[in-house]
Amino acid sequence: MGPIAKAAALAAMMLCIGAAQAQPQGPRPIELSAKAAFNHRHSKVQLPPVLAGLPRTKAMELEPDQLDTISEYATSDLSESYTVYIYRNVAGGLPVWFDGARRMIERRAELGVATLHSAGEFVPPGRANASGLLATYGVAGTNYRSSGVALVPVGEWLIKLRASSRSLSPAQLDARMKAALAEIAWPDKMAPAPEAVAVAPCATSLALSGDAKPVGKDDESGAAMLVGALLGQGGADEKPSDQPPPATRWCRDSIELPEAGVYRADERKDGYFLAIADAGRGISVGPSAAHLLIQADKEKPGRERYEVRLILLSQTMASTLLDRLPPPAQALAIAKEGRFATSFGTWGEGKGRLTIGPDALQ
């Protein structure tokens, strides 16, 4: 399955998750002349019509308003190909999506059996620090010889380069990928980015105690869901800082799901993040910050409450409150069911728009 077909498959997957909400409409061609660069209007990254000596063969928009775009470069016989993805970074962070991209290579049967050649941080063009991650693989069992992926941050956007070759060694592909990244026109000014730290296996386990159950509806739980939505809206309006944000140490949990990677920030035991595929969308699970805020003024705070949040590139949806931390498989099932209590927009005309679902105050 090629990169464009994979994009279509991702769009179909997202239609199945949170089906009751507005979703991406599927890939749409970006009309460009053969000699025109693609100017990504939000990140200000400019992709040339020829990259690493290969002509652009396709340019598509996976989600409206260039929230997720794909530009493909390849030889006529597909013996060498480079694909550049640009998508909004709304959750999880660069290390999570890089790890997801690596796992896609390692599990991509049509590419062949991938063996890691090298992986680590590097200094992207226009940067002074090692804020990017790059990995290359040797490939056996098919007519491919090497494959690789690189991920670079630009403000609230991630730029991913995927490459495959039937002739280049992994070391040669590594050098060719870095040269290709240097051919891209990057913005003169970019928000500071932290040093990239690759994902490692978690050393601890999640604090799970069985499946979660919805909390009975009352004035307090309804207020917590509404406050939670408003807190989320506030986060969407944060202004960029001139200082790089602190680097989060992400780890991969030992729990395996076929449809999503399970990641935890700084070894936390009371929450986790489910990365859907490798393109920015995911499910955040943990204590309800709004419920904690409401309980803070009480002499005898009640039991902690949890929530499941589906985070898409233009909106975030939250479940009703739960009595405990749900296991990853249950959280994924809740998101697939699509019955969210609240939804708020984080982009475009819908930014700041709060929608209350029928489950919120019943």
Strand content: 25-35%
CATH class of the largest domain: Alpha Beta
CATH topology of the largest domain: Protein Transport Mog1p, Chain A
Q: What string gives the helices and strands in order?
A: HEEEEEEEHEEEEHEHEEEEHEEHEE
Shape annotation: globular
The percent range for helix content is: 10-25%
Total strands: the figure is: 20
Helix count, DSSP H or I runs of 4 or more residues: 6
Mean pLDDT across all residues, rounded?
A: 85
Radius of gyration: 21 Å
Major pleated sheet? 9 strands, antiparallel
Number of domains: 2
* Uncertain residue ranges: 4-12, 233-238
CATH architecture of the largest domain: 3-Layer(aba) Sandwich
Terminus-to-terminus distance: 45 Å
Kindly name the structural category. Answer: alpha+beta
Structure description:
This protein is an alpha+beta fold. It has two domains: about 5-185, Protein Transport Mog1p, Chain A, CATH 3.40.1000; about 220-355, no CATH class. Helix content is about 20%, strand content about 30%. It contains six helices and 20 strands. Strands 1, 4, 5, 6, 7, 8, 9, 10 and 11 form a nine-stranded antiparallel beta sheet that branches. Helix 4 (about 220-235) crosses helix 5. Residues about 5-10 and about 235-240 have low confidence and may be disordered.
